[in-house]
Amino acid sequence: MPFVQVADVADDMKLVDDTKQKISKLAQPMSVFADKGSVLVTLQGSIGRVAITQYGAFVDRTVLIFDRYNQDIDKTFWAYIIKEKFIDEARKAPGGTIKTITKEALSDFDLMLPCFDEQKKLGAFLVSIDNLITLHQRKPLFFRYIFKTWEQRKWSDTVDISTEMVDPTSGEYDDMPHIAPGNIESFTGRVLDNVKSVKEEQLISGKFRFRPGDVVYGKINPQLGKYFYASVDGLTSADAYVFNGKNGITQTFLFSLLQTQDFFKYSVSVSKRSGMPKINRDELNAYSFLAPGEKEQEQIGNFLLDLDNLITLHRRVPMKR
């Protein structure tokens, strides 16, 4: 019989097809069995991995089974909300990693649950999002083939870095939002709900102006991945850049470029050269990347932007008891 350990819980919320270990009939009475369709979560090692079992299996003591619920629960929704809760707890933990978790600590987690019918709808919706993301993640395999038709481009030839700094005390920008890196969620491009107007912030020092369609990128601590695709007029911090593509580079593709592993690794590597991690204009202008034609750029950029918007829409669905 399969014996599930932490390493057998995959990142796609499933168990591996074949567990590394098997359990003998002699040892089975000393273990716990999880039926097909059970929700599991790992408590040690890679803490917080969640799976919905696609087959029955015995489980190790480092894996918790959710087998009884105090109210009607859709297991698909439950798996996603538990996974999201562990991600949220990791964000608050020192170093962004949960070192250990106990069943007792897990029981103290606060969770907001909608009614059962809403859970089913949201669970199905989240599965559809994951399927979209899986398609997106498989694109690099396709790109290996089509990269042959892509051209090497240099940042300095294809991206304008705005120098339009304005005076926020003039009164002209009072009603505009001030969106700084602290108002942006890392690695998602999502603007948080803590944005205030220029007047409310009582800003004094110069700020960069951005307009709908501009790409805004936080230059301090690039390892945090702070960027967004502007949909409104506003001001941003002097600790950010405002980008616009040129010479055949579209805005949506430029935004998707910031989200690539290649750009992330480059920005982090060059930022370590100073005491305060920061990527400057010269370092950006030295960056090179591969790009397809404009039509294909639009298809790629719009797909990723639509996906980001869909995920943001999901996250704004109210969770009521």
TrEMBL record:
Q: Which domain of life is it from?
A: Bacteria
Q: Which GO terms describe its molecular function?
A: DNA binding
Which InterPro entries does the record match to this protein?
Answer: Restrct_endonuc_typeI_TRD, Restrct_endonuc_typeI_TRD_sf, Type-I_RS_S_subunit
**Keyword Flavoprotein in record:** no
Q: Which residues cross the membrane?
A: none
Instruction: State the UniProt keywords alphabetically.
Output: DNA-binding, Restriction system
- Domain named Type I restriction modification DNA specificity is located at 34-140, 149-317
Gene3D superfamilies on file: DNA methylase specificity domains (3.90.220.20)
- Gene Ontology terms describing biological process: DNA restriction-modification system
**One Pfam family per UniProt:** Methylase_S
What family classification does the UniProt entry report for this protein?
Belongs to the type-I restriction system S methylase family.
Protein's recorded name: Type I restriction enzyme, S subunit
Source organism (scientific name): Butyrivibrio fibrisolvens
